[in-house]
Specification:
alpha+beta; six-stranded mixed β-sheet; four-stranded antiparallel β-sheet; 19% strand; globular
Length: 419
């Protein structure tokens, strides 16, 4: 249920307990572009709690254009915010009680006490994400007491699109505004990451939360995950006659307990053996020499992926800056091959999405997010969007896979107050 970073670096499989918002039994998963109206969001809140909310907020999911499993290696990433958001109606309480409700999950209001929140508490399910943010704010010394909160999300759960980060960031932003904490977006992202790392136990990097908090419309966010330096890189697909398609394979990853942690441990081992603080410090030009110092073949592959992926982020960023968007396609496809072969985090459905999209004319394609399920992306000419969609759908049907959900990724705004 969470995006692993959905497994990937910034990703990572979030190992939170229970189901996430949007895990609806017997209904279609969320992920449409049609959120509930502000009026309905506020009206549901009022019906639940008997008073009007103090405000409404939204925080988006994200697609990572390039830079997978690099963020927890102090490397570079290039995400963009989706139009799909987690939206929250929120009011403060002064009695230390948290009342949390999701319109996407069967069940009633979850009631907790702020002073009783503890990392790793079992059985919280989706509520671990907003509760974890309250815990992180209080642990950092901020005067946050209770709250009433109602959530509704259109970010697909389990699709590698950071549904969990959206829940965390929207909660953090609402509390920041309501309590006048004066925290900047990158600081909210840090607190949300701490909530995920410590409270829910998922050792994700900083990408997902930063993308949700800091992205801007029409841009991808170049983020140096070591010092959090940000650069908004123009990515106006419509102006270039292009589309970026998301292929949600509907295969849900559950990486939290094993695969993601294993990949991260391998990277840390590689950095230690190479005597560098993190794999980000292995220069691309020194890669061959570095690999020759590693005796384990699996470790060599893990290191090679991270070093070459950082290089791909820089190359894609440079080409976007030069207005040469079409030329990034082969770099996306090369990134998928590296994730599949060197980092070994792909799966048959993701490979099929990439292969069938490229065969149908996509300029390039790759898995996005942590892997082992989730989504792929394909850069296509506008006129090729429908043929590529049909080709991917047909390939899944022929292979006996569940029908994928395909939709365009439009670079959108980060977290904001709605009303």
């Amino acid at each position: 249920m969470t995006e692993q970073q959905t497994a990937g670096g910034s990703h990572g499989p979030h190992g939170a307990p229970g189901a996430g918002p949007g895990d609806r039994t017997g209904t279609e998963a969320p992920g449409t572009d049609r959120p509930v109206s502000d009026e309905r969001l506020a009206g549901t809140f009022a019906a639940l709690y008997g008073h009007e909310p103090e405000g409404l907020w939204a925080a988006p999911g994200r697609v990572n254009l390039i830079g997978e499993h690099t963020d927890y290696n102090d490397g570079y990433v290039l995400p963009l915010a989706l139009p799909h958001t987690a939206r929250a109606a929120v009011s403060r309480r002064d009695d230390g009680v948290l009342r949390l409700h999701s319109g996407d999950v069967p069940g009633g209001v979850v009631e907790l006490r702020a002073d009783a929140l503890e990392p790793g508490a079992p059985g919280l399910g989706w509520a671990a994400y907003p509760a974890g943010v309250v815990w992180a704010l209080r642990d950092a010394g901020h005067p946050v007491s209770g709250l009433d909160l109602h959530l509704s999300s259109t970010v697909p759960v389990g699709a590698g699109l950071s549904s969990s980060a959206a829940l965390e960031v929207v909660t953090a932003l609402a509390l920041n505004d309501l309590h006048g904490l004066g925290l900047r977006p990158w600081q909210l992202a840090r607190l949300a990451q701490r909530a995920e790392n410590v409270f829910t136990g998922m050792p994700c990097g900083i990408m997902d939360q930063t993308a949700s908090a800091c992205c801007t419309p029409g841009h991808a966010l170049h983020l140096d995950t070591r010092d959090l330096t940000q650069r908004q890189v123009p990515f106006d697909l419509a102006a270039d006659g292009l589309r970026l398609l998301v292929v949600d394979t509907r295969v849900q990853h559950a990486l939290g307990d094993s695969a993601y942690a294993e990949r991260r441990a391998s990277c840390e081992e590689g950095a230690a053996l190479l005597d560098v603080p993190a794999l980000r410090d292995v220069a691309f030009g020194q890669l061959s020499e570095a690999l020759s110092r590693l005796g384990d073949e699996t470790l060599r592959r893990r290191v090679r992926h991270v070093v070459t992926e950082n290089r791909r982020v820089e190359e894609v960023t440079a080409r976007l800056g030069a207005g040469d968007t079409r030329s990034i396609g082969p770099l996306l496809t090369a990134g998928h091959a590296s994730l599949r072969d060197d980092f070994e985090v792909s799966c048959p459905e993701l490979d099929l999405a990439v292969e069938s999209a490229c065969a149908a004319g996509a300029l390039g394609a790759r898995m996005t997010g942590g892997g082992f399920g989730g989504s792929a992306i394909a850069l296509v000419e506008e006129a090729a969007a429908e043929p590529v969609t049909k080709a991917v759908t047909a390939a899944f049907a022929a292979a006996g896979h569940r029908e994928p959900r395909v939709f365009p990724a439009v670079p959108s705004a980060g977290a904001r107050r709605l009303a």
